[in-house]
Amino acid sequence: MKLHNLFIIFMSMFGLIGSANADTRITYKSAKSTSSYYQMAVEIAEAMKTGSSGDIIVTVEESQGSVQNVMEVIGRTNNYVFTTPPVLIKLARGGKAMFKDKGNPRFDEIRALFPIPSLTMHFVMSQSSGVTDFAGMEGKTILLGKGSFGAREGAKYLKLFGLEGKVTLAEVELSNAVPALKNGQIDGFVTAGSYPAPNVIEAAASAGATVISLNDDQVTASKRTRLVIPAGTYAGQASDIVTTSLPVVAFTTTDMDDETAYQLTKTYWENKGALGAAAKWWDGVSLDMLDNILTDIHPGAKRYYTRKRGPASPRITKADGAAPCRPLFHSVSCPLHDRHQPPPDLGRSRHCLDRLSYLADLLGTCAEPGVAPAAYGAGASLGVHLHCQRGLAAPDRLAADRGWRPVLRLYRGQ
Q1: pLDDT category, 7, cuts 50, 70, 90?
Q2: Range 189-195 average pLDDT
Q3: How far, in Å, CA of 249 to CA of 89, rounded?
Q4: Each residue of 278-301: pLDDT tens digit?
Q5: Most confident of 63-67, 154-158, 221-225, 334-338
Q6: pLDDT value at position 167?
Q7: What is the mean pLDDT of residues 179-185?
Q8: What's the pLDDT tens digit per position in 80-135?
Q9: 374 Cβ contact list (under 8 Å, min separation 6)
Q10: Which SS3 state, helix, strand or coil, does residue 74 take?
Q11: In the chain, count of helices (H) and strands (E)?
Q12: Are 352 and 376 in contact (CB under 8 A)?
C-alpha cells in the first residue's frame, strides 16, 4: 500500500496523473430553470468556482426532474453530478415505482456527495379564506399543480386527512399561484421547495398568506421527515411552522475519482457559510443531514467527512487496551434491540440495518487492514456492539421508531 502511494505521488509530480485542482469540470444536472433548485445549482457553481480559485468549474444543466436525473446515469460518464431524493436511488436499484422495468447496473454505481436543502411542503392559504388548519380547507379551492413532487404529495395529504373530494382543485399552473391567490381565484396552493420558498415569500408579503402547520399525528401519517420552519421566515409568521420534507442529496457515480469527490465535497462545505449569506435556504443544511443518505457515500467524500467529523466524535476504545480510534458516527436511531436479541420487525428495521452496515464500514477505518467489522452482532476479531437505551430519537424517524437509540461500540476479541 505504501509503495502504491509513493508511486501515485511520483507520477503526480511529473504530471502523469491528473489532479482535481487542474481545472476539474463538473456537469451538474439540476431541475427546471424556474425552480429554486436550479437557482441553488447556479449558487453552487459560483461557490465552487470561487472556493477553488477557478480550479473547479461546474456547468449547470436544466432537468425535468429527479427521475430524469437518475435515468441519465445510464448514459453519462466522468464527473456527472445530479440531485435527487435518496429514496429514488433505492427505487431505481430495485426497479420499483417509476423505475419499473427500467433497471440498470449503472444504478448500483451511484454514490452520494453531500446534502442540499430539502423539499419542504408548504400548504399556503389566503388571509381572506380564514383557514388555519387542514379541516378548514373543506369546501375551498386549492391549487396543487401537475406532475411535480409537490402536486403528488399534496394530493396524498388531502386523501390522508379526509379531504379527498371535499376541496375544489383549481386548473391553474403553479407558476400563476400568487396572482390567482391575490385575485381570489383560489383560496390556497400547495408547493414543495426549500424554505424560504420564493413564491411563498411573495404570497405572504403581498397577500398576507399563511402556511398551515401540521400536528404530530399528521406528520406521522405522512411518513415523511418532520421539519420546522422557524418563526419570522415569512412575513407575518409569528410562530414556528411544523411541516414535512423530503431530503435531497447531490450524487455522482463511481466514474468520479476520489480526489475530485474529496475536493468537491470539501469546497461545498467550506463555502456553505457564504451560500447561506446569499440565500437563507442554505442555513438549514448541516452535517447531521448525512443521516438521511440511504446509499453509499463516495469514498472521496467519505474521506472528507472522516476528517471533518472524526475528531468531534466520542472516543471508542478497543477492549484490549489498544490505541483508541475515532469513528465518524457512533450512534443511530432505529427500532433495534440488544445484539443478543433479533430485531422485533425485520421489515420495518431494514433502513436501520442498512445504516448499521454503512456505520460498520466507517468504523472499519479504525481496524487493522483486512479485518472487517460486523454490522450486527459479534465479529470473529472485531465487531460492533449494539446497546439499546431509551432516549430521544431523531425527529425524522417514524413515531413507532422513537424512543430507542442503539449505541454502537467498537470492540476487539470475543
Answers
A1: very low
A2: 89
A3: 10
A4: 888 998 898 888 888 888 999 999
A5: 154-158
A6: 95
A7: 93
A8: 999 999 999 999 999 999 999 999 999 999 999 999 999 999 999 999 999 999 99
A9: 360, 382, 383, 384
A10: helix
A11: 12, 12
A12: no
Each residue of 74-86: b (16+ CB within 10 Å) or e?
Answer: eebeebbbbbbbb
Q: Which residues contact 287 (CB under 8 A, 6 or more apart)?
A: 269, 305, 308, 309
Three-class SS state of 1: coil
Q: How far is 159 from 156, CA to CA, in rounded Å?
A: 5
**Residue burial 214-229, b: 16+ Cβ < 10 Å; e: rest:** beeebbbbbebbbbeb
Considering just the CA atoms, what is the radius of gyration of the chain in Å? Answer: 23
Task: Please tell me what DSSP assigns to residue 66.
Answer: H
Q: Are 307 and 263 in contact (CB under 8 A)?
A: no
249: helix, coil or strand? strand
Is residue 385 within 8 Å of 408, Cβ to Cβ?
Answer: yes
CA distance 321 to 337: 27
Q: Copy the grid coordinates of residue 56.
A: 473547479
Segment 319-339 mean pLDDT: 36
pTM of the shown model: 0.64
Beta bridge partners of 61: 29
H/E run at residue 253: strand 241-253
What value does the mean pLDDT take over residues 21-33? 84
Element (H, E) at 43: helix 36-51
Collect all residues with Cβ–Cβ distance below 8 Å to 269 and sequence separation of at least 6: 114, 287, 304, 308
Between 40 and 150, residue with greater pLDDT:
40
Give the helix ranges, DSSP H, for 52-193.
66-71, 86-94, 149-160, 177-182
**Separation between Cα atoms, residue 7 and residue 257, nearest integer Å:** 17
Question: Contacts by 276-282 with C-beta closer than 8 Å and gap 24+?
Answer: 278/43, 279/39, 279/40, 279/43, 280/195, 280/196, 280/233, 281/36, 281/40, 281/117, 281/194, 281/195, 281/196, 282/40, 282/43, 282/117
Cβ-contact 193, 36 below 8 angstroms: yes
Q: Which residues in 262-271 are b (16+ Cβ under 10 Å) and which e?
A: bbbbbbbbeb
Q: Enumerate residues 6+ apart whose C-beta is below 8 A from 38.
A: 30, 31, 32, 60, 62
Nearest to 364 by CA among 340, 344, 381, 341: 381
Q: Which residue do the cell numbers 447561506 mark?
A: 276
Helix (H) or strand (E) holding 13: helix 2-13
Strands (E), 327-402: 382-390
